[in-house]
Amino acid sequence: MKTARRILVGIAILLVIVLITVAPDSNAADNTSSPDTQVFVSEAVTPELSRPVRDIPPRTLEQTLNREINPIRNPGLFMDDLGLTGSNTTDQDPLVALSHMETGYTPSPIFTFEGLGTDGYTPPDTMGEVGPNHYVQMVNVSFAIYDKSGNVVQADTPYTDLFAGSGLTYCSSQNDGDPVVLWDSMADRWLLSQFAVSSSPEHMCVAISQTSDPTGAYYLYEFQVPDFPDYFKFGVWPDAYYMGTNTGYPNQYYAYAFDRDAMLAGLPATYQYSNGHPNFLL
């Protein structure tokens, strides 16, 4: 009798387990309507090798322009708040009246020297990075290399000259600015970048130094991107070169991860990306 009772209890427990297993997921509809962010993978890009920078004749571009080289593509550009609620910069921050300016906390510069000019663009989007032995500066649309004493090692050089003769037609012909330079301290290498967006499709132009010497040759990558990569910013991490961009519309920021290992080795490289993010990714 006890054995029969145990069998019945066991069957009842088994039925409960089966019913729980096959019961419909109450969150299924929510999962369908709110899918996880989709990650896309690009086609592999084969790099070209540049001339050594030290062999590129420096030249100063004719400075005839005085404008933003690539104004933000925002439909609310001419609105007070650029179409973004709460971003009207003509309004005074109420906290300003509560603050006190303290000018004595910023130390004086230890060392100064003259860098690049504007190349005719306003603002010049000045970027610079310090490595073990060099300082590399970029502006729209040129770069220069200095030693740690401020002496010019490579004078004003248009970024497209780095890609000249590579066969990468977008990056060698469209000097569109918005530069970013990074020293990858983990690999002791340099990353120089700007975008090529004068025509469609749009591209990111990324140069990775072949060695630790920024005056040497670079692996040149011309990555086609899915949308206008405005205001892009790069970061170095062990597993990737990360990039955030702003297409110019609310909540349309992109996050990219470029194959750092392949790029450091001068091998074909891909990137992964997702979009629709808020701007904290920059």
Pick out its properties:
five-stranded antiparallel sheet, 282 residues, 5 helices, alpha+beta
Measured as a percent range, the helix fraction is 10-25%
Radius of gyration: 26 Å
Total count of helical runs of at least 4 residues: 5
DSSP strand content: 25-35%
Main sheet characteristics:
5 strands, antiparallel
Overall form: globular
Distance between the termini: 72 Å
- Spatial arrangement of strands, main beta sheet: 1-14-13-12-11
Summed over residues and divided by their number, the pLDDT gives a mean of 82
| Low-pLDDT stretches | 7-35
- Secondary-structure element string: HHEEEEEEHHEEEEEEEHE
Backbone structural class: alpha+beta
Let me know the number of strands.
14
What does this molecule look like?
With 282 residues, the chain is of the alpha+beta class. It is 15% helix and 28% strand. It contains 5 helices and 14 strands. A 5-stranded antiparallel beta sheet has the order 1-14-13-12-11. The chain is globular. Mean pLDDT is 82; it is low at 7-35.
SSE layout:
Layout: H1 2-22, H2 28-33, E1 40-41, E2 48-49, E3 127-130, E4 134-139, E5 142-147, E6 152-158, H3 159-163, H4 169-173, E7 180-184, E8 189-196, E9 203-209, E10 218-224, E11 233-237, E12 240-246, E13 253-258, H5 260-264, E14 271-277
Antiparallel strand pairs: 1-14, 2-10, 3-4, 4-5, 5-6, 7-8, 8-9, 9-10, 11-12, 12-13, 13-14
Brief summary:
The chain has 282 residues and is α+β, with helices and mostly antiparallel strands.
